[in-house]
Every structure is written in C-alpha cells, then in structure tokens.
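--- STAGE predict ---
source: upstream dedup step, 1 unique chain passed
mode: sequence only
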Amino acid sequence: MLEVGYLSSFEWNRAHFGAWAIMSAPLVLGLDLLDDALLDSVWPIISNREAIRVNQRWAGHPGRLVRSWTPNGAHNSNDWPSTPFGGVKYEAPLDAIQLWAKPQPGGAVAVLVINADASSVSGVEFAVTLSELGFQGGSGSVLVRDIWRRQDMGKVTGRLIGRVNARDSAFMLLSQLPDDDPPPPIPPPPIPQTPPTTPPPQIAPPLQSPPPQPPLRTSAVPPSPPPPPLPLPPPSSRWPPPQTKLSVPPPSPLAAPLPYTLPSPHARRSQLIVLGLGLLGCGAACLCWARCARSVCVSAKRPTASRVRGAGGNRRSRRRTAPVAGDRRPVGSQRADTDPIEMMPIRHAAMSMD
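--- STAGE serialize ---
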C-alpha cells in the first residue's frame, strides 16, 4: 500500500509513487480520502496519467534495478517522519542512488532515478549508457520526456546524463529514434544490356515415303452366305402392344379444398353448450348404471329359499308357524320358505294361487 501523503516532503512522496509505478506494483492509496487538505497536496502525484501509464503497460518485464551506488561508499540513513501510526527510524546498508528501468511497448524504456541521500544538498549526478537500459546497439538517438514535468527534454545519443536533488527523483521515458544522418541506400548494380541473338533456322528433314506393303493373300474358301432374316410376327401378336392414350378427366370443382373459416363467437358458444349437455347426459347415464349394478349386487347377497331350506339354516330366518294339514314334520322343525324378493312365505303364496 502506498504511503503517499505521510512522508516528509512533496518530492519524497513523488519518489515513493514513482518507485511503485516503475516496479508494476498495485497503486493502492493508504491516505484518508476525506481529508481535503491532504488530498489536494498529493493530487498532482496520484493523478499523473503518464506515471500511471508506465505502471499499467506491459512489454515483457515488470521493472528491474539497473544500478545502485552511494557517493563515497557511505551507508544511507533512512528516517521517516512521525505519522498517526507512530514514528519509524532505522538504519540499513542501502545505496543512496538507485536507477530502475522498465520496458514499454514500441521499444521505449521508462527510467527512474531515486536519490535517498538527504545530505546531498547540491544533488547527485548520474550517467548511464543506452545499452545498459536495453537499447540495441546503444549508439542511436533517443527522445527524452520528463514524466513529472510532462514535457520533452530533447534528444540524447549514446548515454543519458542528469542530476537528482536530495530526497527527490527523476522519472523519464526514453523513446528510440532513427539515426539523424542515415547512409544513402546503395543502388542496385545495372543490368547489362546485350543485343538479342536470333537462333539459327532449323531445317526439317525431307519426308520419306513408307515402303510398299506386299499384297494380302486370300483363302480359297468362298465366303458363307448371310443367314436369312427372321420372319416378323403378325401385327396382332406384336409386343409390346401399342400404347393407348389415357384421357384424364378434368378435376371437379368439388375436389378442391374448401377454405377454412373460423367460427363466429356465437357458433363457438353453441358448440360449447352442446358439448356440456352431452357430457352431463353421459354422467347421468353412468350414475344410473352404477345404481342399478349396486342394487343387483345387494339382491344377490340376500338369502334365498334354497339356502333357508339347508341343514340348520339361519336362526334369524327361522319362523315358528302353526302346523299345516299334511305336514308330518314336528312343530319345532317346521320353517317358513321365503322368497328373496317378496320376502313372503312361499306356502301362503301357493295357497292364494289355489
């Protein structure tokens, strides 16, 4: 996360932002965006489109440390100012000057030089050859553009020389240019002009007549006569029979498909009413059939006269009656024969018929 806004000076905040941009690091702000005064002080840094473009573009490498050194070989002391999270101070054997480079699309190279030595009041000079930065050959001309100032600085050839103030940085974009005075192209050698030569005429050889062929020998056997032609069948038995033309009647107008017309709403309503009545009649018929079937099943389960006459019989169906003339059975064993439908004694029905 970036510490832009909490460092000692505007230049040191700018160098910190440039280090994150040259190394393709995520540019995540760590300051309070609700603090208008703090945001206004670092707005020229975090809104630099050219620095953000260097961070976002990719050309094969995220950024590398080309060279680092310290004047007089002394170690650098890095002290951070007091912040809301507390003061930080440490000493480490870090070089005071660092030179970073990152390739850009189109053969360009972004260069960042950081001077972390606070004791160098007059600044520190730096010099680097173009071949160290990745330019092929290193003898061509490059166009230098200052990213912090957003302006072109001119052209350099062979090596890049500059000066960086204390606790400051130099952020540049180097674009390769063709040589100022390229050598003229070598013209191709002239094509020799030779007179056209005509080939000698070719004389065709004289035509030779073929040698005479000997006459063909003929055999003494006379040729056989041709076979007689086969007799033709009578006209009536010829095959195939002569073809007759079939007369196809013209299509009748009734065979044509009738145009389909949608029924009117009244006709559709009538059809629905008729369909409903038909379904209602079918339901009533099914209900009547079910009731008749149920009554037949119930009547089939009732006891009949033959069952009543069986041995023992049903005690509930037994009925004590008075002895009848001609019946020799004892009084206790006499039973009334009942009809399954009328449920009346059969004996009494026979007497009434007499």
